[in-house]
Write a structure and sequence with these properties.
This protein is α+β, with helices and mostly antiparallel strands. The protein has four helices and four strands; from the N terminus they run βαβαββαα. Helix 3 (69-80) packs across helix 4.
């Protein structure tokens, strides 16, 4: 298992997309956990979890939720700036570029 904690810090644009593609490539042969705040990296994942933290009675509580496809679009739109139609369309476009991606090694 490989864990990448914000490996994409200080990158964006085409570089972020390349990081997402590289993570997906590595995940073909390894278990990969990648913590990211970049939508392009998150969209490349096959499985997407969201982590939320809150304080209850003076204690920090973390909650991890597995997202379905519509949930991924909502979360990636949030990462892009919020619940706007433009962010939602962009999120759906990012996810669409990976849907049905055929891995060459699986042929």
């Amino acid at each position: 298992m490989l864990v990448f904690d914000e490996i994409d810090a200080n990158v964006g644009g085409a570089t972020a997309a390349a990081v997402g593609e590289k993570m997906r490539h590595i995940a073909r042969r390894r278990q990969v956990i990648c913590i990211t705040h970049l939508p392009a990296v998150a969209a490349a994942a096959e499985t997407h979890f969201v982590v939320a933290k809150r304080v209850e009675a003076g204690r920090t509580v973390s909650e991890i939720t597995l997202l379905d496809q519509p949930g991924r679009a909502v979360e990636i739109a949030r990462m892009l700036g919020g619940p706007t139609q433009a962010a939602r369309r962009h999120a759906e476009a990012l996810l669409a570029q990976w849907q049905g991606a055929i891995e060459v090694d699986s042929l």
